[in-house]
């Protein structure tokens, strides 16, 4: 398995290491529930150095990205970030990603770890004009500092006023106690927080500094288990579950990052038709009525027929309920509709509810 620069730190903290898409990463340290609670109430520190980083540079970088992604990159200001998807010609999703704009000729793409090689090949295959695409993932380590106390903790290490850094904006060349850092006000937990990018060799040092700075503010190291339950409560999609090559961003409820009014992009024709004709499937949220925990790929029924399947399901540590996301026939997607989840060969009642399940107000 591949390891991040923080691997030895995870072992020192007795992190439970698992194989995550070919990466040796901690699923938990003290326990998923306690780590989840810490992020919701105080702060958690995640090693996300397995994520992929790809640079797109050149005179035609903006024009090229406009053709590649579904969101409108042209409206971004410098130091602003866009969440977007890349689609196949059939409208299915290649990946979801963040686009960081340094300038009109200089962008950083942050992609899912398991998709990095595939994404890079896709981007290279569709290069047009004066554009250079580079996979620079090995150069970066990345940490996510998330939770209500995240700003208080990070502010101890940087002189820049973090109050001035708005949500989905970033600042490069921030001095974090001698480590040159890109500080991004983003995250995958539904909480306020930051994602920090810096040279791979600085990973262990940054990890130690942050844990030390946050020890009096309740900061804990957190693993992949809590990261998944946190993102799930916020109804943030996971590639391979809520989105994949056969699920479009519109079906997944990501229409906000699909700008059909902009010029042509890969998959646009299919998405335009899908919207005009009406969606046949939708990803919905649901809450169990009967006792039972829904899991990925469990079948969903209504009117004595199968109407879809669970994409993510779990007990919600914050809401203390059994909830899930499911891709189902659109006619059953209305809030309040009763559906059934097949759990251990029993059809258990559930109701379609509004998503996200959890909403946190950001400071900025």
What can you see in these coordinates?
By secondary structure, the chain is α+β, with helices and mostly antiparallel strands. It contains 8 helices and 19 strands. The strands form 4 sheets. Strands 10-11-12-9-3-13 form a 6-stranded mixed beta sheet, sandwiched between helices. Helix 2 crosses helix 7 (224-233). The two termini are 39 Å apart.
Name the features.
364 residues; alpha+beta; six-stranded mixed β-sheet; six-stranded antiparallel beta barrel; 8 helices; 19 strands; globular
Would you spell out the secondary-structure blueprint of this structure?
Elements: H1 7-12, E1 16-20, E2 23-28, H2 32-41, E3 43-47, E4 52-57, H3 61-68, E5 80-87, E6 93-103, E7 106-111, H4 116-125, E8 132-135, E9 140-146, H5 150-155, E10 170-176, E11 179-184, E12 193-199, H6 203-213, E13 219-221, H7 224-233, H8 268-277, E14 281-288, E15 299-302, E16 305-316, E17 321-329, E18 338-343, E19 346-353
Parallel strand pairs: 3-13
Antiparallel strand pairs: 1-2, 3-9, 4-7, 4-8, 5-6, 6-7, 9-12, 10-11, 11-12, 14-17, 14-19, 15-16, 15-18, 16-17, 18-19
Helix pairs in contact: 2-7
Give a summary of the structure in a few sentences:
Helix content is 20%, strand content 35%. With 364 residues, the chain is α+β, with helices and mostly antiparallel strands.
